[in-house]
Amino acid sequence: RHADALLPETGQRDFDRRLSTTGRKQALLLGEHIEALNMPIQSIYTSPSLRTLETTLQVTSQLKDKPRLVETEEFYAATEKLMIASITRLDDLFESVAVIAHNPAIGLAFEYFSGEHGRGYSPATCAWLQFEIDSWKHLSMGIGQVKDFYYPGSL
Question: H-helix or E-strand containing 99?
Answer without folding.
Answer: strand 97-100
